Each structure stands twice: as C-alpha cells, then as structure tokens.
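Practice problem: predict the structure.
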Amino acid sequence: MSDVLTQLNGAVFIAPDGPGTPWYYLGDCSYADDLSLPKAASTPIFCYSARTGKFVKRGSSMEAPDNGTITISSLLERTANRLEQLQCSPTLYVAQTACGVKSDLKNADRVWPLISADIEAINYTNLSHYSDDGASEVSVDFAFDPDVQMMVRVDLTRQTTADTDTINDIDALALSVCAGEGCGSPAHAGEIAWTAPDSAAGPALATPQITENYGSTWTNAAANPFAAGMSIMSAAMVDVSPTVRRVILGMEAPTGAQGMIAYSDDEGATWSTVNVGGAVAGHGSANYNTIFALDYYHVWLASAAGYIYFSSDGGASWTAQESGSIHVGDYMSIDFYDENYGVAVGAADVIAVTQDGGDTWSAATATSGGGDLLTCNISDSNVIWTGDDDGKLWRSDDFGDSWTQVTSFVGSGVGDVKHVEFVNPVTGFLVTNSAAPLGTIHRTKDGGYTWEALTTPTNSGLNGGSFWDANNGYVVGEANSGTGVILRVSPEM
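Answer:
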C-alpha cells in the first residue's frame, strides 16, 4: 500500500441536518473540487523615516479571512439526485481513505468537516452540444467557516511519570499564545498541562505534576497545595496577565469539614488556598471535571452537596450560585459553552442548566437512565452530552428539555462513561470504562452519530481528559504497573 493519497482515495459525505445526524455517501460518480481555506490577511504598516529617507515596517494589521469554498459535483441522471435536492446549510465531510471501503466515513484517513456549508450556486454543465457527447454534470458551490480542523488518524501513547498515584484529572493549555516583546514566552496548545492526582496511602501528600513539553517529561510541583491525605480531583488554568498563568486545583470534598481550592501563579512553587462552604459543609470537588474556567473572570466549581460556586477573580474567591435547591447530592461535572450557557450534572440523574452565566440555575429534564451522571459537555449552542455510571451516553438537542441515548460505541450500556468532550461540533472524544475496569478512548468524526474505538494502551480504568483540537489531547487514569496513567493522543506518524 502506498502512503500517497490520490483523487481516487477521495469521497464526499453529506449530513443534511448537520453534525450528529445521519450522513450519506454521495456516490462513486461524484467528486470534490479544490478545497480553499483562507487564513487571516496581514497588511503591513509602514512609517516614513526622515532620517533614512525610507519606509520602515513598524507592524501589521489583521483582516478577517474570506469564506472557505469548495465545489461538489456529480453526474446528471434521469432523476434528481441528492446533491440537487439539498436545502438549508448541510454539513459536508470530504474524506480520503487508503484502506477499506471509502464509502464508510469511519474508515477515512483524513476528514475535512465543513460545518453549515451555505449553498451559493447550483451549476449544470454539458447539457447540450451539436457534436461532443460529454457527460452532463450538476455541481454545487459551497461557502463555509474557514476554521476547519482536519482529522487524521491518531495514536495513543502512555507517558512516563514518577507519580505512583491514581491521576483523576488533567487540564492542558487550549489555545496557542504567540507572545511578543514584553508579553512573556510563547506557548502552544497542549504544550503545558497540569495533573490532579490522588493522595497516596499513609496518608501522604497529593503532588500535582506539570509538563511544559507536550508530555515528554512530567515534573512534581515544588510545593503541595493541600494537607496530607487530601486528593486533588480537578484542575484548570487561566491567564492572570500576559506573563502570568494560574493553575487552579480542587481538593476532594472532605466529610464534615471545610472545602478548599488552591491556586498558584508560579508553576507550583507556592500555593494560595481558599475555603469553600461552611466549616463542616463538606463542599468541594467530588469528581474530576468539576472546575471549569472560561477565563480569569469566569470560573465555576460544581461542588458536593448540591452547590455550584462562581469565581470572577481566577479562583481567589467564590460565591455560591446554586445552594442545594435543585438537589443536595454531589455535582460530578460542569461545562460552559460561553459565559452564559452552562450545564452541571450529578448523582441520581440530576441535570442543572443556566442561560445567564449561573445567576439562575434550573433543573433540566432527567435522561431517564436513572444512573449517576459522571460527565457533561456542550458541543454546540443547544447540544448537551452527558454520560452515566451505567455506561450510557446521552444527547440533548434542545438544551436539556429532552434526551436520546446514543449507543453507537463499543461497550455502550456497560461500566461507566467517564468523560465526554467535543473540540468542535463534529469532533469529540469519549472515555469509557468496562466493568473490569478497562478504559477505552473513542473519537467521533461526525458529531457523535458514529464513534470509533481507538487502540488504547493497557490500563486499570481511565478518568478525566483534556483535548485541544481534533487530533490532540491527554487522558489520565488509575495507577497501573506502579505509576499513574497519562495517555497522550497525537497524530499518527
């Protein structure tokens, strides 16, 4: 088999109703023209120097990119084909497949998802000629958001760490920072990440670790944020200033004692701790994925005992937004789409939603699964995902008013759905544990309509994860073979 892909390896798939809905293969007699993905345009700024008599470049200004464009064509037949009958703005998947049946999107080596592609023109060619007998064709010109994350095949590799404890959660830098003069050091998405580990038996201290080289090495923080015997359940990062990045860690909710959050602005050399809840309230992180940080001014904590807290100062202080009025059980996960739309899930199939940044929280419809919900994610403006401790994955297309069980992954209905996270409306990752437990990482290329089980290294159960694009991320898990498990998801080489 050649590693070189050709036009004959290509295929076009169309989901008329958007991500997460049924798609169809356009057929053997169809093809895609060149795919154009414009980037932001840069215009130089020049100043005339009276000293040198020349124009000197002093900077540049940026302009928004144009739409991405592509033309999809197929042979014209006696009856109208699906391309001619498209309405609204479908999602297109342009794929190339070296092995296997190219008419199955799951087999693809490369996928370009073109979300909400606007139909700009329908063209008919070779309709009539006095002597030539070329094939008649129909083609459709599409325009779409040019910020397309191409999907490629990925590998999972276990990272080397000296941490002997279970690792509950991890948070990685999600956006690249191209720093300039006086703005600190540049950092790329995934280059920096923090772990949230258990405390060792003894009791001993839970020591978080940091990587600053995409997981090649993991280094213990110089200081420990919490007292001996207290596990760290959740982690998040925010930028305090152009040169200071803060890590925020959530201590496991203690029984009959004060909850606590810790943060560090100097890569773990020193920690500040903040009390959460009353002296014997037992508030704090009951699970991983319980701290969500949109930015320094918007940080939420899904707490034990039915509380949801908010911080507008990077975790330095916390105010209760929800105080056990929806339920008094533990919240197990929280996620926000933007500064307004959020969801938190918890024990006994409890789902809370907000559309005003948490000023008000209300109970959403239960999934009907009856289990404890362990994870949640908002993949699009109205689309919520959640998973439970019965191995069931649920999707809502109306922000929690109704739910549909998604069973298109191996192991559905057994064990636990531990983590679900979408990096855009079509590409998401799913972490499940069997009853053993044995963890598996899955990826979807079509908004959750189908899921592919990735070849996952040996483990004793997986927990939280952090992904920053369609092909990259980390997943952490229970101690195995003497150390905690950190798995790196990266493009296949």
